[in-house]
Design a protein that fits this description.
- By secondary structure, the chain is mostly helical.
- The chain has 3 helices and no strands.
């Protein structure tokens, strides 16, 4: 799953859970059944899980291009330098 696919999965999850929460609440309210409300929401959670957790092909529309290992050896990481202190020492005159 690429980065845009992760974002899409997160957005789908949030939207679907919200929709099923509202639908579950309204169903439970109209029918006067707390059990029906919980069942509708639980069904929504299961459906949301089936849509967002597997790595479906539509989550891989923007694959990452990895750097070739031989190319990585040509460009080594720079050495880390000691951080320069930005504190100024004041002297009395």
């Amino acid at each position: 799953m690429d980065w845009q696919g992760q974002k899409l999965a997160e957005q789908l999850m949030q939207i679907m859970l919200l929709v099923f929460a509202v639908v579950g609440f309204l169903t439970g309210y109209v029918m006067g059944s707390f059990q029906m409300m919980i069942l509708v929401y639980a069904g929504g959670v299961v459906l949301t899980t089936l849509v967002t957790i597997p790595n479906w092909p539509f989550f891989n529309r923007h694959p990452l291009k990895w750097l070739d290992p031989s190319e990585a050896e040509k460009h080594p990481k720079p050495d880390r330098q000691q951080p320069v202190s930005s504190k100024k020492k004041h002297t009395k005159k």
